[in-house]
Structures are given as C-alpha cells and as structure tokens.
Amino acid sequence: MNATPLWAALLALLYLWLAAQVIRARYRTRTALGSGGDPGLERAIRAHANFAEYVPLALVLLALAELQGAATWLLHGLGAALLVGRALHGFGISRTDEVLLFRSSGMALTFAVLVTGAFLNLLLLGR
Q: Which residues of 14-52 are buried (b: 16+ CB within 10 A; e: fewer)?
C-alpha cells in the first residue's frame, strides 16, 4: 500500500475538522472576517492556519521520499507522527485555556517530521 495517500487522506480529515471549528466559532460570534477580537475564534483560526502552513511541505517531503523508494515502515512512521503532532497542536492551541504541553509536543513532532523528511530525501538522492 502507498503510504502518502493514506496519510494525506487522514490529514485532510483533520484539516476539515479544524475548519469546522473555525466555522462554528464564526457562527457563535457572528464574525464574517477576522477574529473580531474573540479569543476562541482567534485560536481556532490559528490552529487551522498553522496546520495549513506546515502540512503541505511535510506531505511533499513524504511523497518525494516515497517516490525515491524510502522504506514503507519509515514513511508510515513519519505520517503517523505528523498526524499525531498536528492533532496535539490543534487541540492545544485551539483551547482558550491553552494546553501548552499538547501545543509544544505537537510542534516538536511536526518539526521532527520535517527535519527527518528533509534529510531522508537528501540521503536518498545519493542512491
């Protein structure tokens, strides 16, 4: 089974859930654009946007490593770490009573995937 399509699909579902949180907060605050100064809406917006800022590059690195023949177990490990990291970060940052442990753990996992994916692709170039 190809690894990247699986993780891209699961991450897309998480992205949609984060988008739904923004929509729900916009409806609650009756705010069409921006955050209107509402802390809950601002956090939902940032959780969604942060996901959109990091996940595309991570998925590109995953797909490129897969195309270069990276081990399937490693690709699934990176995909799982990215999904868990983004879920932890999204949960941690979106709460007005922020859970810093979840937010920072989520970012650490995301950065680990990006660094590993970058070096993995560089190593695979030499094969």
A: bbeebeebbeebbeeeebeeebeebebbbbbbbbbebbe
Q: How many domains does the chain have?
A: 1
Rounded Cα distance, 75 and 54, in Å: 17
Q: Helices 39-67 and 3-29, interaxial angle, to 10°?
A: 170
pTM higher than the cut 0.90 = yes
CATH number at residue 36: 1.20.120.550
**Inter-residue contact 50 to 19 (CB < 8 Å):** no
Q: pLDDT per position in the chain (127 positions), as tens?
A: 699 999 999 999 999 999 999 999 899 988 888 878 888 899 999 999 999 999 999 999 999 999 999 999 999 999 999 999 999 999 999 888 888 899 999 999 999 999 999 999 999 997 7
